[in-house]
Amino acid sequence: MASSNKSIYAALAANLLIALTKFAAGFFSNSAAMVAEGVHSVVDTANQVLLLFGLHQSRKKPDAKHPFGYGKELYFYSFIVSILIFGLGGGVSIYQGIAHIITPEVPGNPTWNYAVLGMSVIFEGSSLLIAAKEFNKLRGELSWWQAIVKSKDPSTFLVLFEDSAAVIGLVIVAVCMFIGHTYHINYLDGLASLLVGLVLIFVSIILARESRSLLMGEGIGATTKKHVIEIVEQDDDVLKLMHLMSTYQSPTEVLLMLIISFKSDLDTAGINNAIIRIRNRVKDEYGLIHFVIIQPDTFMEKVSPNMQLYV
């Protein structure tokens, strides 16, 4: 969690430093693309504030109203961030771009724009390097895309995607601005704004998909599930693990529910002892599994040669 905070603070500082300068440059040079970039930086700044707030909320202790804690607050605010990128970032940029393509305006002196773009690339690039370095520590042997899909902490990859989109947007604006100014093609300024908006919408769709999946309740991976089944069914008092259900309450907390068929010769005290033993074994093996709910049930083995009945 501390590593994700580092990348968020770096992104917040970068966006805060350049947002006002982008607006100033866009005002003096009459550039729609630069105004779109300014909006992008303001949205990114708001996003980092929301992520930090979501991280703070997710650390609140469980109470009577939320017995499993507030971990999913982070997933909620991550989803809000993706919506903001889509609506404010992408939507405003596309609107500005279409308006300036239909009615292109003669851009003013681009010197301000080039200076701000240069500064922005330095700040955004530095933030991207920090985010990439921090995420690289977390992904282990997984590929970058696999690590993003399997990550349960959206604050790690949200900043990575935001900074990547920011750097791509800056390159698009710089290229279009240079060509438009050199060859006097006025509508390229609007085209740059439109392309930046499309990049932001593409990124927001990916982020919304991942955040929504976490918010809806992702469970443990197949390898972890297989190992938990082995731990449970290796117990001498267990006949069979009938059902396993799990969900991430936060990036560091998993709720696990096990429906287990115990041997028929166990009395109530024996079943209770087995439940405590299994719960402790699972929690000792996996520190992320904070909550283990075990429900005994009955299992009737053979109804026919090819069928098993679960009751």
CATH fold category name of the largest domain: Alpha-lytic protease prodomain-like
Name given to the CATH architecture of the largest domain:
Up-down Bundle
- Rg of Cα set: 26 Å
The whole-number mean of residue pLDDT values reads 85
Write the CATH homologous superfamily of the largest domain: Cation efflux protein transmembrane domain
By secondary-structure content and strand pairing, the structural class works out as alpha+beta
Taking pLDDT < 50 over at least 5 consecutive residues as the criterion, the unreliable ranges are 302-311
Largest sheet: 3 strands, mixed
Assigned CATH class of the largest domain = Mainly Alpha
* Count of domain modules: 2
Helicity, in percent? Answer: 55-70%
Series of H and E elements: HHHHHHHHEEHEEE
The number of E-state strands comes to 5
Q: Termini distance?
A: 42 Å
User: What is the overall silhouette?
Assistant: elongated
- How large is the share of residues in beta strands? 5-15%
The number of helical segments is: 9
**Order of strands, widest sheet:** 1-2-3
Oligomeric state of shown chains: single chain
Description of the molecule:
This protein has 311 residues and is of the alpha+beta class. The chain folds into two domains: 2-216, Cation efflux protein transmembrane domain (Alpha-lytic protease prodomain-like, Up-down Bundle), CATH 1.20.1510.10; 222-310, Alpha-Beta Plaits (2-Layer Sandwich), CATH 3.30.70. The chain is built from nine helices and five strands. A three-stranded mixed β-sheet has the order 1-2-3. Strands 4-5 form a two-stranded antiparallel sheet. Helix 1 (2-29) packs antiparallel against helix 2, helix 2 runs antiparallel to helix 3 (73-102) and helix 3 (73-102) runs antiparallel to helix 7 (188-216). The protein is elongated. Mean pLDDT is 85; it is low at 302-311.
